[in-house]
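User: Structure please.
Assistant: Input sequence and predicted structure:
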Amino acid sequence: MRVLVQRVSQAAVRVEGRTVGEIGAGALLLVGVEEADGSDDIVWLTRKISQLRIFNDEAGVMNRSLLDCGGDALAVSQFTLHASVKKGNRPSYSRAARGEISQPLFDRFVAELAVALGKPVPTGLFGADMQVSLINDGPVTIWLDSRNPE
């Protein structure tokens, strides 16, 4: 699984002119699932995201996590995170899991993150054409890949 984490002061996702998920200060999570992903990927990402120290403490140092500051998370499924551009100019999405595989994994990731954070995690609408708006705070943007945890 790949997740692009963006620290935000606010974020929202709209579908057909209707807001389906929004948060105040916290993290916007763009989530991509591939065929080989499973429970271990969800566990690693849930722990990493909930404990990632990207929020400022009283001294202005990024030393607090979503758990520490009570921040919100908004998760949006994004298969294009698995784009391959090795050949030509048209991206290939062959590594991205099909909907029947990725949607249950995405839903499970969201449910487990909600448990870890102790609050609901709003989402976009899986498979829909979504418009995502955000105010990136910092900006702080971090790439997480459960297959390459560095």
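The helical segments are 39-51, 66-69, 99-117.
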